[in-house]
Design goal:
Strand order of the largest sheet: 6-7-8-3-9-10
Shape: globular
CATH topology of the largest domain: Rossmann fold
CATH superfamily of the largest domain: P-loop containing nucleotide triphosphate hydrolases
Structural class: alpha/beta
Largest sheet: 6 strands, mixed
Number of helices: 9
Oligomer: single chain
CATH architecture of the largest domain: 3-Layer(aba) Sandwich
Order of helices and strands: EEEHEEHEHHHEHEHEEHH
Number of strands: 10
Number of domains: 2
CATH class of the largest domain: Alpha Beta
Bound molecules: adenosine-5'-triphosphate
Length: 241
Amino acid sequence: MNENVVEVENLVKKFGSFIANDNLSFEVKRGEIFGFLGANGAGKTTTIRILVGLSPLTSGKVSVAGFDVTKQAEQVKKRIGYMCQKFSLYEDLTAEENIRLYGGIYGLSKREILQRSDSLLNRLKFEQYRKRLIGDLPPGMRQKLAFSVALLHNPEIVFLDEPTGGVDPFTRRQFWEMIYETASKGVTLFVTTHYMDEAEYCDRISIMDEGKIVALDTPSELKKRYKTKTVEDLFVKIARG
Ligand code: ATP
């Protein structure tokens, strides 16, 4: 099995003459928690949209789960989970209905959906919320459910674009426990966040500035290299020139 779940070579994405991703090259290893950091507008979501097959690249070569995102997008989609920045479940459906809907989209059988739905709600201790509309649940609960739904079809890699935005510290901690547990099963996590304490939890982090990756390594190695005590200090030091 390929060690790298993501391979990006000389990725360029332009919007007209504006270069949103400027010649990116990096790999993400299987089972890794990879933090994809950068200031607002640095180009992170643009890259994620390319990696999940939602947006075409201008030039370069990108493979995810061993498949080329340009030529084999359908193969890629079967093997990935994606939780986008804006809330990714339907607010006017219940927790259970959302699980059924996504299970169907992911091509699971009725039986698989039923089994996974029960074990998912049980694991999250959400059984009593099964029939509640998603719109009536607090943001932290919705995010945990959205993450679990993104894992419903056992993807090799999950892309989480600012999964904990607007979530309280306690729930953020619980969310990260779910991320660790998922990684321990061999699933790769590709996470963007503006919370630098979360960046410290990643195996490796990449820092993007104006469309370019300006640093990529383990948090401890980067802190040593840039002589900073925290990832937050590191980020402030290098994320804007
Ligand atoms: P944030 O942390 O705020 O989510 P980001 O790092 O994810 O930011 P992107 O959303 O990737 O940043 O945006 C990178 C740049 O590309 C921004 O300047 C944005 O305005 C621009 N951009 C993104 N999508 C488009 C588009 N469809 N057309 C034109 N410009 C775009």
